[in-house]
């Protein structure tokens, strides 16, 4: 089953969220300390991923062009509107800031090398080990996020499933057109670009500066285009 890893990942997020909601009564000071710990961990993860690039100039160009496209499309505003709509449907009391939880969790779970590599493995080799590992990590992370940000984390399971499932389903098509060397190069630059976005998420969580990370998401597509052009020409 090509989508097995994606399904398990989504279920892990949902289960983790419900567990986290049961832990929401912990003291606010403890929640703040936990969020700082997560933020610091996310920053370190982002830096580690960003250093995987073989040509960081590609990453820089991708981020610049991607940010222009993202600001034009207003992706961040769109995601927040989805979160706000969910908030209105459910009611904000006892549920935390749904928009913030949805956007933060979605970006953390979607942006990263494991999502891409794991989905490719699921589609190409029916090997779900990477996504199953990611499911455990995301499940634990969703526990902590839900305990501090509320039920909005739950709804991130849908975009995670659609994103990873889409990559898995298209993997066979991608493999027909890309050599192993090109695929490895592409993964390296995607990892580095995703690392910068992860770093930005960590900065947001630490409250250092609010960065519209969602508006940087087109960088993932831009870096793919640049790598393909560079490789062939």
Automatic annotation (TrEMBL):
It comes from the Bacteria. Keywords: Membrane, Transmembrane, Transmembrane helix. Coiled coil: none annotated. The chain crosses the membrane at residues 6-23, 35-51, 57-75, 96-120, 140-162, 182-207, 213-231. Pfam families: DUF554. This is DUF554 domain-containing protein. It comes from Metabacillus elymi.
């Amino acid at each position: 089953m090509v989508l097995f890893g994606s399904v398990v990942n989504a279920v892990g997020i949902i289960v983790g969220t419900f567990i986290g909601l049961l832990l929401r009564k912990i003291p606010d000071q403890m929640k703040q300390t936990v969020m700082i710990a997560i933020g610091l961990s996310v920053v370190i993860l982002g830096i580690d991923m960003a250093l995987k690039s073989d040509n960081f100039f590609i990453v820089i160009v991708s981020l610049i062009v991607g940010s222009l496209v993202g600001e034009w499309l207003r992706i961040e505003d769109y995601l927040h509107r989805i979160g706000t709509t969910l908030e209105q449907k459910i009611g904000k009391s006892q549920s935390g800031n749904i928009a913030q939880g949805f956007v933060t969790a979605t970006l953390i779970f979607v942006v990263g090398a494991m999502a891409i590599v794991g989905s490719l493995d699921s589609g190409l080799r029916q090997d779900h080990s990477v996504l199953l590992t990611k499911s455990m990590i995301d499940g634990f992370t969703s526990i902590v996020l839900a305990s501090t940000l509320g039920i909005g984390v739950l709804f991130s399971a849908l975009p995670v499933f659609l994103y990873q499932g889409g990559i898995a389903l298209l993997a066979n098509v991608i493999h027909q057109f890309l050599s192993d060397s090109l695929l490895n190069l592409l993964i390296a630059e995607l990892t580095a670009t995703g690392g910068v976005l992860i770093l930005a998420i960590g900065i947001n969580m630490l409250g250092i500066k609010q960065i519209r990370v969602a508006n940087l998401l087109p960088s993932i597509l831009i870096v793919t285009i640049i790598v393909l052009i560079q490789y062939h020409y």
